[in-house]
Amino acid sequence: MGTANNFNTDEAPVGVLHNALAFGTTVKGDITTDGDFRLDGRLEGTISCGGKIVIGPTAQVEGDIISVNAEILGAVVGSITTSEVLVLKPTAIIKGIITTQALVVEPSARFSGTCNMLLENDDLPAPDSEVEQAVLPEATPVAAPAPSEGYTLGKVIPDDEDE
Fold this sequence. Notes:
This protein is mainly β. It has strands at residues 18-21, 26-28, 31-33, 36-39, 42-44, 47-49, 52-55, 60-62, 65-67, 69-72, 75-77, 80-82, 85-88, 93-100, 102-105, 110-117. The strands form two sheets. Strands 2, 3, 5, 6, 8, 9, 11, 12, 14 and 16 form a ten-stranded parallel beta sheet that branches.
C-alpha cells in the first residue's frame, strides 16, 4: 500500500489551467498566473496572466493588467498591456493606458486614455517603464489651391452702369 506522500509527480497537468475570481469577491493585492483567468469580482492591484484574461461584465479592476490576450467586458482603471490582442466589448469602460499589438473596439465600448500599438518585433515595456513616444515625420504643409480664373466673390457690376 502507498502512503499519502507516495504519488506520481512526473505527470503534467491535463488541459489548460483556468482560474476565476467570482462576482462578490474582492482582492487587494497582485495576482500572477500562467494559465487563463476570468475575473467577475473586484481587484485592487496588478494581474499578470500568461494566457488570456477575461474581465467579465460585473468585474472592476483598479490597477494594471498584463497578459498575452485580453477581453474586457467590465470596468478597468489603470493600464492594460497585451502582447497580442486586446478586445473591448460593448460593456467595457476603460480609463488608462493601453499597450497592445492589436486592438478591437466594439461599438458602445468606452475608452478614455492613450493607446500605444506595438510592432511585431517590439518587446513589451517593463511594467514600471514609460513607453517611448513614436517619432512621426513632420506633416508637409499643403498649399492652398490657386483661385480659379473667371470666378468672383460678391456682386458684379457691369462696366456700363458706372455712368
